[in-house]
Each structure stands twice: as structure tokens, then as C-alpha cells.
Please model this.
Amino acid sequence: MSTSSPREASVEVRVRPLPGSSYTVEVAPGLLGRAGVGLKRAFPGRRAFVVSSPRVRRLWGGALAASLRRAGWEAPGWHLVPDGEEHKDFRSYGAALAALAAWDRGLKGRPLVLLLGGGVVGDLGGFAAATFRRGVPFVQIPTTLLSMVDSSVGGKLGVDFDTPAGRVKNLVGAFAQPGLVLADPDLLATLDARQMRSGLGEVVKTAVLFDPALFRRLEAAGSGLLTAHPALHAEVVATCVAHKARVVERDPLDRKGLRALLNLGHTFGHAVESASGFALAHGEAVGFGLACAADLSRALGLLDAAGRKDMDRLEALLAALGLPLRLKGPRLDRVLAALARDKKFEGGARFIVPLRLGRCAVRPLRSLAPVRALLARRLGAA
Ligand SMILES: NC(=O)c1ccc[n+]([C@@H]2O[C@H](COP(=O)([O-])OP(=O)(O)OC[C@H]3O[C@@H](n4cnc5c(N)ncnc54)[C@H](O)[C@@H]3O)[C@@H](O)[C@H]2O)c1
Ligand SMILES: [Zn+2]
Model:
């Protein structure tokens, strides 16, 4: 990984997950308008097929199409995945493949798939691209803060899948790296506060894991992060991507357990997300999960005086960003049942716990008693 000027509004992060599969993440306001030219240079002789969602196409599809047209691309094919996590399923994956196959028939140029949307479009459309004709190149053009800082980088693709025991998130998928990632923070102008907050949950997670300076930057910006601010968001996105790239490079296929660190706050987060029937956005659940992880550090006596202060700052930042510290909706028994179903509980539970800003540890837990007690407080059921 290499990063140019991480504090400037326009940066490139180079991700080298595996030999021969390195790619660039460009982060800059105004990037969508220049996308056509850059794509032409990087992928000559291809025809573009865009996977997006109805809302995102309405908001930003015209700008992408115009940018492609100006650079001399033929009009691209389009496939729209309906909005919502419930559509990140095998059926929608099949529909995307069918659309790709129909468009591809009889055309001469080789396809390039452009993924214009949030994590749902990126995960599902990327999986379709990675499996169509055994894999065609694809480019992530993330349009949510969460997809800019997290899902568009790292090569994890896939869909949720129905099993006899219910739908399992990301059960079917593949690893395949994008050819390029274009993150344009101007696109966040149309994102609602809730989706922005959701992305900030992952941003705070990254700061707690790796970066006290980023944490201070977030504290200084506070609720200003919730509204469009392209230069600030570019800086935050580039910093988070650089951290994720570093982990992805050391463990590209998630085999060494290093990527598990990125799941700070996610054991609790996934449990409340699923117990709420997905009424919570993913990053909101992660924000709540971060507060729970800090509680667990406290309960296990892992914090020194500085660590206790840091965890108080974490709670204050989550509150300033409007991330939930307490939840009324999900029932304690449901959350505990979801936790117990989590694969991390096979043969004893492992939790990622924060010790200081920038320092975390993995702790095995034999008994769920401390978890039950802290969840009871945070779910208002004590
Ligand atoms: N592959 C990975 O490594 C990885 C990592 C984290 C999360 N994910 C996945 O990402 C998904 C969540 O992604 P998400 O949070 O981006 O949600 P999302 O893709 O569902 O998008 C949220 C909503 O925002 C709308 N939207 C998107 N961009 C917009 C814009 N610029 N303006 C206005 N509205 C816009 C969408 O239409 C959608 O309704 C989950 O399925 C999760 O599993 C994957
Ligand atoms: Zn996450």
C-alpha cells in the first residue's frame, strides 16, 4: 500500500493484496465527472455495463453516463438492483447475471462492469462480475460513506442466502479484487443523515482500532461530519481506506485472522442488527457494538486510567454523531440468541476489545455472564 498526501482532498491509495492484483483507490471530489476519461485509459477496448440501484441511478446515473459519453464510450448497459438489504439475495444475483448475459450477447467489446451504489450494489454486482464468464473486470464507484470506507475495498463479494434455519448474511460469495475504486465524496451530498451516520459507525471503528489522530479529527469535526463536506470526507475516507488496505494486504483472503480485527464492535453489532429485524442500519449497529465492546473491556478489568478516559471519549463521540448508545427495540433474549448463533461462539467466544484508542486485543470468553449484564443495561432491560 502507498498513500499520497493523506491529508489532501485528492489522494490515491494503492492496494496490493496479492501479486499481480494491485489496484488504486482514488478519493477526490469531482471524480465522477472525470471517470469516463480515467476508465478509458485504464480499460481500453471495453464496453461498460453499469449495475446500480433505482435511487442512485436517478441521482447520479446521468452524471456517470455523461462522463462516459464525453470520453467516447458507447452508451452503457444498465441493470438496477432494487434498494434494500433484502434484495442482496441469490434471486437478485441471478437477475443481474441474466441482464449481463442478455446485454453481452452478440456484442464485440469485452465487458467492464461499473458498480455505482452502496455496499449492496457493490457486493452483489461485484459477485456477478466476478462469476460472469468466470470473471470480468469491475470497478467500484461507491456512493455511500460506508461503501467508500469499507465495502468497496478488500475484495469480499457476495449475497445473503436462505437456509432452512433462515437467511444468512454473506453466506455465498467470492474474493475478487476490483480493477479500480473511484470514491467521489461529492456523491454524499444526497445521502440522508441516517446513512451518513451508518458510515460514521465504521469510521469511528477504524479510528479506535488504528488511529488516535483520526479520532481527534472526528472529535473536532463532531456533528459537522453528518452533512456534506467533500474535503473533510475525502480526508476521512482516504485515511480509513489506507488502514483497511494495510490489513487487507497482510491477509488478503481472510485466512490469518488479521482481518478479524476489522470486526471490532461487530459481534454485538450483528446481534442487535439481526434482533432488530434489520431495522437498524449496519453502521448504527456497529456504533452500538463499539459502546458494548468498551463496556466489556471495563467489565473484564482491562482498562487502565488512560484507557478508561479513552472509552469515555468514545462514548462522547458516538453520542455527538447520533449513534445509538442505548436501544429500546431489540429484546435482550433475542440479542443473546443471535450472539449464541454467531459462528464466533463455536468452541468458546472470542471478542475484540478496545484497550486504548489505537490499541485492541482479542479475548476468549468462557461465560456469557458479563455480556448479558452489559447488554441488559444498554438495552434498557436491567
Ligand atoms: N464487502 C465488504 O467488505 C463489506 C463491508 C461492509 C459492509 N458490506 C455490505 O454493505 C452493505 C451495506 O452497504 P451500505 O451501507 O452502502 O447500504 P446500501 O447499499 O443498502 O445503501 C443504503 C441506501 O442508500 C441509498 N444510496 C446510496 N448512495 C446514495 C447517495 N449517494 N445518495 C442517496 N442515497 C444513496 C441506496 O439506494 C440505499 O437505499 C451490506 O450488505 C453489508 O453486508 C460489505
Ligand atoms: Zn461493518
Summary: The CA atoms of residues 307 and 355 lie 6 Å apart.
